[in-house]
Write a structure and sequence with these properties.
Number of domains of chain B: 1
Strand content of chain B: under 5%
Oligomer: heterodimer
Distance between the termini of chain B: 32 Å
Number of domains of chain A: 1
Strand order of the largest sheet of chain B: 1-2
Radius of gyration of chain A: 19 Å
Number of strands of chain A: 0
């Protein structure tokens, strides 16, 4: 409960801070809309020549685009800004302030920064997803909805743990902010079903940079093509990665020398 | 003239030195330059395979050729000036550049060319490696290969001038992100990055022919693939020359107005 209260407080602080720059809302709205229209036009061009892409029909790919925006928004809202800040504060030593606080430091660094305007992406993604679902009609039942929710949560935990591990590398290597940018350009590959890609790319997008678990897998759940093995695998992986990220964080923290030490 | 040569030479050295320092950012640029065309290569190959081996006037293996050549042409002509310029203006770094006795565009050109001297060989290796995987068909006649050289040089010049001019919007507004994004979307669709332009409806092709984007990327790609007739090649080079003149005029006008409006902190 205490964690939720902290989360709320940090969120409020970020909202208050961002309220001074209200024009940013319109800029972000504009940019998100342009990005969405680009994605949809791209789909329109491809599906003007075919009505199935690697076994996915247009509405299913549309659902995938919705998931892509939704998750991209979530990552941009909390994960990415917090991890960027963490890497920065390890380098310049301001992590001292966080460590001195009487709460779990991992929790604090994970919620300290929120890019609130990314909520727009989440809303847009949700809109696209709903549209796709309505057009898919009867195919979405209770099991699909439930497995989708579980897969979305597992995916977010996987991505969070993955980011924390990468960000914790800064305890050893100091300059790792470039990793953030690699993730951004690779994430674009998640806009299409992972099954399209050749084996080595599928492997890389599943196990090296686990994008498949946040985009394709939840979309598979919604469109009723998720196997029980994938579902179980994703949940186990989420648990393992979360534990691993916690361990890496702890070991890394011992490496941290601070500003005055 | 001799001075300018010295400036370029010095800039080569500086860029080399800084690139050796920042190897990681090289890798990042390369990943995004490889990944985007690769994704579209795979998407269009899949569409083509489901459609019986071809889409429009492209077979599966011709798509592979198209996007691999596009990967290289895009890399040859791209600039990062739009990110750089905003930073320079915001941080007041332009004051230093303005004090120098030569136009700041020269050091940007030298910087761009020298960094590509390092990255282009790496990109070629990657493209050849992907070629073994996707078996592209690329069959240009000799004249097309020869005329692709001036076409590539012109494409680079047009793109550089236009993007340098557009980057100057940072003199007027601090929110260049939105402007850049619109530009990137136009380039994505109208230069042939998302799909060969011949796959688009006729009216899109006409718009693309009038605007500069096709002449910066799509045209040299099609020329290198041997898909154009000699007449089309001449017409394309003509269009590039026209856009070079327009780009140069815009660059001069915007630069004069921009420098007048620029005020650094403390001025």
């Amino acid at each position: 409960m205490n964690y939720l209260r902290l989360l709320f407080v940090f969120f409020r602080v970020n909202v208050l801070g961002e309220m001074a720059y209200r024009a940013n809302f319109f800029i972000q709205l504009f940019q998100s809309m342009v990005e969405l229209v680009t994605a949809l036009l791209g789909l329109a061009v491809v599906f003007s020549y075919t009505n199935t892409l690697g076994g996915w029909n247009p509405n299913e790919v549309l659902a995938l685009v919705g998931v892509y925006f939704l998750v991209g928004g979530l990552i941009g809202l909390v994960v990415q800004p917090a991890m960027g800040k963490l890497i920065e504060s390890v380098r310049d030593g301001t992590l001292d302030f966080t460590l001195a606080k009487p709460e779990d430091a991992q929790l604090l660094v994970s919620i300290q920064r929120v890019e609130i305007w990314k909520l727009i992406d989440i809303v847009l993604g949700f809109g696209v997803l709903t549209t796709a679902l309505v057009r898919l009609g009867e195919h979405v039942g209770g099991w699909e909805a439930l497995s989708f929710t579980v897969m979305l949560l597992a995916g977010v935990v996987i991505i969070y743990s993955f980011w924390l591990i990468l960000a914790a590398l800064s305890f050893w290597f100091v300059r790792v902010e470039n990793i953030l940018e690699i993730f951004q350009s690779v994430y674009e590959a998640g806009r299409w079903p992972i099954s399209l890609y050749p084996g080595w790319m599928r492997f890389a997008l599943t196990f090296i940079i686990p994008i498949a678990f946040v985009t394709t897998v939840p979309a598979e759940a919604l469109t009723g093509r998720l196997t029980v093995e994938t579902l179980a695998g994703a949940v186990v992986l989420a648990g393992v990665l979360f534990a691993l990220s916690r361990a890496v964080w702890r070991v890394g923290l011992r490496q941290y020398s601070g500003t005055s030490a | 003239m001799n001075n300018l040569w010295d400036l370029y030479l010095q800039q080569f050295k500086t860029t080399f030195a800084s690139m050796v320092q920042y190897r990681a950012s090289l890798v990042i640029w390369m990943i995004s330059h490889v990944l985007e065309p690769l994704v579209y290569l795979i998407v269009w190959s899949t569409v083509s395979l489901t459609g019986g081996g071809s889409v429009g006037d492209y077979t599966t293996r011709q798509f592979a050729g198209y996007f691999l050549v596009l990967m290289l042409v895009n890399h040859v002509t791209y600039t990062w000036i739009m990110y750089e310029f905003e930073y320079r203006v915001r941080e007041g770094m332009f004051s230093v550049a303005l004090l120098k006795p030569v136009h700041p565009i020269h050091s940007d050109i030298a910087d761009n060319i020298s960094s590509k001297l390092i990255t282009l060989p790496m990109m070629i290796v990657v493209a050849v490696g992907l070629g073994f995987m996707f078996h592209p068909v690329i069959a240009p006649p000799v004249w097309a290969l020869a005329s692709a050289i001036p076409a590539l040089v012109l494409a680079f010049m047009v793109r550089f001038l236009l993007e340098w001019t557009l980057a100057q919007s940072a003199f007027w507004t601090t929110r260049v992100g939105a402007i850049n994004q619109i530009y990137f979307v136009l380039v994505l669709f109208l230069s042939g990055q998302i799909a060969p332009l011949t796959l688009f409806p006729k009216f899109v092709q006409i718009i693309a022919g009038v605007l500069p984007f096709r002449w910066m990327i799509g045209f040299p790609v099609e020329l290198l693939l041997g898909r154009l007739s000699p007449e089309q090649a001449w017409a394309g080079i003509g269009a590039q020359l026209v856009w070079l003149l327009v780009g140069y005029a815009l660059f001069r006008i915007v630069w004069r107005a921009g420098v007048r409006i620029y005020s650094a902190v403390g001025a």
